[in-house]
Amino acid sequence: MPIIWKIKNSLSILLCGLFLVTLNTALMGQRISLNDSLTGFTEALEERFLFKKQLNSELFVLHLGDSHIQPGGMTIPLSEALHSVYGDAGYGLAFPYQVAKTNGHDGYQTKSNVAWEVSKIIHAKKEFPVGVSGYTIHTKDVNAKITWEFDSLSYDDQVQRIEIFHGNVLDSNFQYQIVSEFGEYAKPLRHLSDACHSVFAFEKPTFVFDLLHEQQFAFQKSSTIYGVKVSNGQPGAMISAIGVNGATYNHYAESIEFRNQLEMLHPDVVVVSLGTNEAFQFGDFDDTTFFDQGLNLVQMLTSLESQPIIILTTPPAVSKVQYKNKKSYFTPNPLVPRVRAVIMDIGLRLDIPIYDLYTYMGGEDSMKNWAQLGMTDKKRIHFSPKGYRILGEGMRNAIDNHLPQ
After folding, report:
1. What is the distance between the alpha carbons of residues 330 and 178, in angstroms, rounded to a whole number?
2. Which of 26, 207, 258, 336 fits 152 for a cystine, CB–CB 3.0-4.6 Å?
3. Which one-letter DSSP state was computed for residue 274?
């Protein structure tokens, strides 16, 4: 049976909305700007949005980032806005983060009966290639099982189609079976699958399903999973968040496997929310090097066959801890404005729209105000769920202005 979630009812949603209104008022009282708009060239973005609406085909939007994006909360408001215009095509990418022993999205939970080996896109020496999710899990146990349980009270649409990005079954990778909570084995869609990409479909949609392994040949010795995508089989918008704790522009730009698997998703729009980890490089940070790394990632994304429209976001105004007389205190991270300036420069030079999250927060010393309102963690680097919701509301409002009416 689906997970019963703690606070998922219409009253809690209403109270959350009232809280956001009150909090936004408080933030403005703290002299935080809340400037929610895109700057730069937006015509191509508007044309893509309109084209997909007129065509009545799936709109795939990817939100790519670091630890601010990995939990998925900041992406939710944008999902809501796009679903209201295009309809809902399903959840999208749903990597088994808990199986990889890291934090994941609140919209679903995963578990396994065995421990898996893990590689991350940020690792200098990777045990296994890292693909579309920024994480890879690996096991040699053919009896390994992974269970997905989606929040049935937050999402009306159930899972009908599952896509698995995996190791090559013609080399040494096991093959897969998908079983629903009702005991139905999903039908393999072989015309949509290949040796490294398996697609399945249920006749009866479900909120809960298991991934099982099958060894059809003796040379199949292990399972390597790069990503999982789920959908409901309906047209509409699909918004996926890919975030990796510690990730930078360069980590994604240098990953060939990430780029090649991203090609298979056919993204229409890619929102890039990176830069926080570059702001903690301190003595190693170089503006010119960072410009080149940012340019490399943008060029890699625009080289995709789907020619996605790129939106860059500036990093939040995170803090840096200082020590004096054995006591700690927080100051604005001095590298964030430099990181922001480089990102703004890339957007200006390449006619890429930018959502200036840094300015939306209130600028250099604004993290202090957010912390006073209980919207950050103790280190003043990350945000509370409500804090991420507000940041996501700003990004949604900025993009919403360019959606077809």
Report:
1. 49
2. 207
3. -
Bridge partners for 92 per DSSP:
230
Considering the domain boundaries, does residue 405 fall inside one?
no
Average pLDDT, the chain: 91
Q: Judging by beta carbons within 10 Å of its beta carbon (0-12, 13-18, 19+), is residue 315 exposed, middle or buried?
A: buried
Confidence category of residue 254, pLDDT binned at 50, 70, 90: very high
pLDDT of residue 363: 94
Pick from 101, 318, 132, 128: nearest CA to 243: 132
Report yes or no on 31 lying in a domain.
yes
Burial-class residue 148 by CB neighbours within 10 Å (0-12, 13-18, 19+): buried
This prediction has a pTM of 0.90
The burial class, CB within 10 Å (0-12 / 13-18 / 19+), for 220 is buried
Q: How many residues does the chain have?
A: 405
Q: Which of 214, 231, 248 marks a domain boundary?
A: 231
Domain boundary among 205, 231, 257: 231
Q: By the 8 A CB rule, do 290 and 342 touch?
A: yes
